[in-house]
Specification:
The protein is α+β, with helices and mostly antiparallel strands and 472 residues long. The chain has 3 domains: 185 residues, FAD/NAD(P)-binding domain (3-Layer(bba) Sandwich); 139 residues, D-Amino Acid Oxidase, Chain A, domain 2, CATH 3.30.9; 69 residues, no CATH class. It contains 9 helices and 23 strands. Strands 3, 4, 5, 6, 11, 12, 13, 14 and 15 form a 9-stranded mixed beta sheet that branches. Strands 1, 2, 7, 8, 9, 10, 16 and 17 form an 8-stranded mixed beta sheet that branches. A hairpin with a 2-residue loop joins strand 18 and strand 19. The chain starts with 5 loop residues before the first helix and ends in an 11-residue tail after the last strand.
Length: 472
């Protein structure tokens, strides 16, 4: 079955009027991807007088943004303490400042453009003893970085916890309402948006040429805002781990939770509410795993359902979906040149499931790079910096796992004669991994770098840009 998020169901997209004949031209900047990063970057550049085109393979919000929990928070589970394990306190402080900038920018934009937002506390909580140690460490790091976080021993949840960290006055939003407002504001400043147009190549310089099935677009600068860059230069696919997690929406008799909750230990659970007509819905997330892993994806979703009904027995499910995120090897997001010393092609991503604040912060970094601005906290987002060194061990482990998956997949496919199935090649068109069937989402998922394809072999998510091959 197709899993459609609550947000995407609320805001269905239809094919736009743009035709193939409309594509072409030369722009100051071409942005690849119409999620929160792409649209915010496009708007910032257009406000500064640059001519901008946004090229989107699907529709606005088709990817991670339209499937996110849309929590806008500086408290992010155990993210701050995780970063502190690999980086100095000054780096953590820069990261926190970036989150504050992202939250403040979104808050202002939503108020100015009448996008409904809800102010909620953010809570990172623990199920067990080890989780309590983690969350107390998170409190310590958060306070040291200047966040007014407090310890909350008794949480108003229908299951036992070991307490948690509470950060007041954070935000939550319907992400597609936000993207709709960004799209309108960007268009008002002259940004051209072209949907259903996948970029397959980014080549050359002065100008850069972007190849699509509909033609070629030229630009002085290019921003690839697809979370996992679809350009292999820079090897970002080898520096991040692709993850999928699941989300459910439930109608409940009364508002089920009073804050945005996230567990720091197992079982992984994310909770928030959202207004819905005269009442509210409960959103439950978790049960994540590496993309293409040997797991029963339908069972993962079912376990989340059973857990929810155990604690909210009167809840009635309305939506089920999943989302894809990427965890970088050095625990920091990135925004900047795809190669050292080059400013013609820039990339952004690696938000570790915290794309709302990080996407806006990355957009501020990218626009600063192209417009000559500078923010001290942007150092935490640099694509090529000394911070990368801290992730070398993790990168080696990730790529060792990738090599093992490549070998195992080919050995098994050869042994069972299943390199092709129903006339479709199971060889990923990115780097040749063997894709696995995802029963919950009816998709083919690559365990190497997270490319995904629909039942017919068409690309759903990159870094692959070409569909699976069919037998003649």
């Amino acid at each position: 079955m197709t899993l459609t998020s609550l947000w995407q169901d609320r805001h269905p997209r239809t094919r736009p009027a743009t035709t193939d004949a409309d594509l072409g031209g030369h722009y100051d900047v071409a942005v690849v991807g119409a999620g929160l990063t792409g649209l915010t970057t496009a708007l910032l550049l257009a406000r500064a007088g640059r001519s901008v085109v946004v090229l989107e393979a699907g529709t606005v919000g088709f990817g991670t943004t339209g499937r996110s929990t849309a929590k806008i928070s500086c408290l992010q589970g155990s993210r701050l303490s995780t970063i502190s394990h690999k980086h100095a306190s000054s780096v953590v402080e820069h990261y926190v400042e970036a989150q504050r900038e992202g939250l403040a920018w979104l808050g202002r934009f939503c108020v100015e453009h009448e996008v409904p937002i809800q102010r909620r506390d953010a809570v990172s909580y623990a199920h067990g003893e080890q989780g309590e140690q983690t969350v107390r460490r998170e409190l310590e790091v958060a306070r040291k970085a200047g966040l007014p976080a407090v310890w909350d021993e008794e949480l108003p949840l229908p299951f036992a916890t070991r307490g948690g960290v509470r950060l007041p006055d954070q935000l939550q939003v319907d992400p597609l309402e936000l993207l709709d407002a960004l799209t309108l504001e960007a268009a008002a400043h002259g940004v051209r948006l072209v949907e259903h147009t996948r970029v397959t190549k980014v080549r050359g310089s002065d100008p850069v040429r972007l190849t699509t099935a509909a033609g070629v677009v030229q630009a002085d600068k290019v921003v690839v805002a697809t979370n996992m860059p679809m350009v292999d230069r820079g090897g970002f696919f080898a520096r991040m781990k692709p993850q999928r997690s699941y989300g459910l929406a439930y109608r409940t008799p009364t508002q089920a939770v009073d804050a945005m909750y996230l567990s720091v230990d197992q079982p992984s659970r994310s909770l928030r509410d959202t207004p819905d007509g005269d009442g509210s819905l409960l959103l439950v997330g978790g049960n994540g795993h590496k993309v293409g892993a040997r797991v029963d994806t339908s069972q993962r979703l079912e376990e989340l359902r059973q857990w929810t009904l155990e604690h909210w027995p009167e809840a009635v499910e309305t939506h089920a979906w999943s989302a894809q995120d990427y965890e970088p090897h050095h625990e920091l997001p990135f925004a900047g040149p795809v190669l050292p010393g080059r400013s013609d092609v820039l990339v952004a991503g690696g938000y570790s499931k915290w794309g709302m604040t990080n996407a806006v912060a990355a957009s501020l970094v990218l626009s600063g790079e192209l417009l000559g601005g500078h923010m001290p906290w942007a150092e935490a987002f640099r694509t090529w910096s000394r911070h990368e060194v801290t992730g070398l061990g993790t990168a080696a482990l990730l790529n060792g796992e990738v090599g093992l998956e490549m070998t195992r997949g080919w050995v098994e496919a050869a042994a069972t004669g299943s390199v092709r199935q129903d006339g479709l090649s199971r060889v990923c068109t990115h780097l040749g991994g063997i894709v696995r069937w995802n029963d919950a989402e009816r998709s083919w998922d690559c365990p190497l770098h997270g490319s995904r394809f629909d039942e017919g072999g068409e690309v759903l998510e990159g870094p692959a840009v070409c569909g699976l091959r069919r037998s003649s």
